[in-house]
Write a structure and sequence with these properties.
The structure holds two protein chains of two kinds. By secondary structure, chain A is mostly helical. Chain A has helices at about 5-20, 25-65, 70-95, 105-140, 140-155, 165-200. By secondary structure, chain B is of the alpha/beta class. Helix content of chain B is about 60%, strand content about 10%. A six-stranded parallel sheet of chain B has the order 3-2-1-4-5-6, with helices on both faces. In chain B, helix 6 (about 170-175) links the parallel strand 4 and strand 5. Chain B is globular, with a radius of gyration of 20 Å. Chain B starts with a helix and ends in a 5-residue tail after the last helix. The relative contact order of chain B is 0.15. Classes of the chains: A mainly alpha, B alpha/beta. Chains A and B meet through helix 1, helix 2, helix 4 and helix 6 of A and helix 1, helix 3, helix 4, strand 3 and helix 5 of B.
């Protein structure tokens, strides 16, 4: 029974939502809307519990004095401080203040969160190019050479110099023909994989919930 | 005509897929053995688990930023299947496996899967209090967090399995600095490219959805692989037929 009930609930909900996508029936649509609303509430609760989970993990790391405990202390302070500011400002303004440019929450978000994420994203590019070069040492061969060649053409092709115009044209061709064809093939494969795992879920063969 | 066909394609694929899955599952149960092409990522995974068990370190499986609802739910289901298989095997190691995500809904299902794996092995008493980590609420922040989690927590094998993007490079770079084997599976092209340069094994396209079929001998999972193959050939046929009809000017 412990296995049957979650399976029936999951498959039932999935079928109702799926059918409502294909059959324009007002009752099905209402049921679907209710299920989606419940999911939104559950997701919001999950975020709250997730923040608690984060705090518990880092508090435990602090207590046990694990490696990198200083970062855990910083995380706990940042979470408590940001949460406190956000709640206080929202109560004061009688609504969410994240998108108000003058609020402290917005300043924290733009000044720390967005800036940190942007710098991390910038590092990605450097790591990728370095890794492409390192590939020649770790996995020398024709495919690695081809990969590195395409990376070089792709990067140099962006430089707006008249002398490099043929490389720009080559880059455009690479992006529009072989890269587009390859990526469409991969994406079709991904879509097939998603379809099959979805069907397996609908038939109760894939059960991420246990009991 | 084409528009009419497209609106029916979704239900047709789902119903056809379900019928094919039932038929192939039955065939596998009755003794049909599908011949699977070797996929390096899955072939190496048992060795990675063995390395974790022998070294006394940990296995890390990250499910990325994707959640249980929305367009990337398929990647989440594939990641949870992978977690189920790897945690089941790595639960006997000295240290519990680490499972991480940046989605608040996935973290609870993940914890449940880890708990279930320990209960199935009869070692529920060794179940860690914390078995699913919500590292951040954003994919780039998750990658930033994992760059310290991987070296600090004595991770001996790293599996990234979800809707990761280019930020995979940050995580895989951290793993390659400590010299651990890494497997990347993502439904995003950027992650597949990053994985190709930095990870030992990368799963391309639909390969990430084949974890159960390759790592478990479950009839329905192997039936699913056969369905993928049949549908792939059907799509190839449709593309070729469409190109031919277009060339002949018969599609209008």
């Amino acid at each position: 029974m412990k296995t049957i009930i979650p399976t029936v609930v999951a498959i039932g909900a999935a079928l109702i939502i799926l059918l409502s996508m294909f059959i324009p029936n007002p009752t099905l649509f209402t049921v679907r809307q209710t299920l989606v609303d419940w999911a939104v509430v559950l997701a919001a609760l999950a975020v709250l519990l997730g923040v608690l989970n984060l705090l518990i993990v880092h508090t435990r790391r602090l207590e046990q004095g694990e490696r990198g405990a200083a970062y855990s202390l910083l995380t706990v302070i940042a979470v408590v401080f940001t949460l406190g500011i956000g709640v206080a400002e929202s109560i004061g303004a009688d609504g969410p203040v994240l998108y108000e440019a003058t609020s402290m929450t917005n300043v924290l978000f733009r000044g720390i969160v967005s800036a940190s994420l942007a710098s991390l994203a910038a590092l990605v590019m450097i790591f990728l190019v370095a890794a492409a070069v390192r590939l020649m040492r770790t996995r020398p061969g024709g495919w690695s050479l081809l990969f590195l060649g395409v990376v070089v053409v792709g990067l140099v092709g962006w430089i707006p110099l008249a002398a490099l115009r043929p490389l720009g044209a080559l880059r455009d061709w690479l992006m529009q023909v072989p890269a587009a064809a390859g990526s469409r093939g991969i994406l079709l494969g991904v879509a097939l994989g998603v379809l099959v795992i979805g069907v397996r879920f609908l038939m109760g063969a894939e059960r991420p919930y246990t009991d | 005509m084409i528009d009419g066909m497209v609106s029916w394609l979704g239900p047709l694929l789902i119903i056809g897929g379900a019928v094919l899955l039932a038929a192939f599952t039955l065939a596998v149960r009755r003794g049909f053995e599908p011949s699977l092409r070797p996929i390096d990522g899955y072939k190496a995974l048992p060795q990675q688990v063995a390395r974790v068990v022998e070294s006394g370190g940990r296995m890390h499986v990250s499910l990325g930023p994707n959640g249980l609802s929305g367009q990337d739910a398929g990647a989440t289901l594939a990641g949870l299947a992978m977690l189920d298989v790897t945690v089941g095997a790595a639960a006997i190691a000295d240290h519990p496996p680490l499972a991480s995500t940046s989605d608040a809904t996935t973290v609870w299902v993940m914890s449940d899967i880890v708990r279930h794996a320990y209960e199935e092995k009869g070692i529920a008493d060794r179940l860690p209090a914390q078995n699913g980590f919500l590292v951040a609420l954003d994919s780039t922040a998750l990658a930033g967090g994992l760059t310290s989690l991987v070296p600090d927590m004595d991770v001996q094998a790293n599996v990234l399995f979800g809707s990761f993007g280019a930020e995979t490079a940050l995580i895989a770079e951290a793993g390659s600095r400590v010299g651990i084997p890494q497997t990347v599976g993502s439904d995003q092209l950027e992650a597949q490219a990053a994985g190709y340069t930095l990870a030992d094994h990368v799963l391309i396209g639909e390969e990430m959805f084949a974890a159960r079929g390759y790592l478990e001998e479950r009839a329905s999972a192997q039936g699913g692989l056969l369905v993928q193959d049949v549908l792939r050939w059907a799509i190839i046929g449709l593309i070729v037929a469409g190109a031919a009809l277009q060339t002949l000017g018969l599609l209008g």
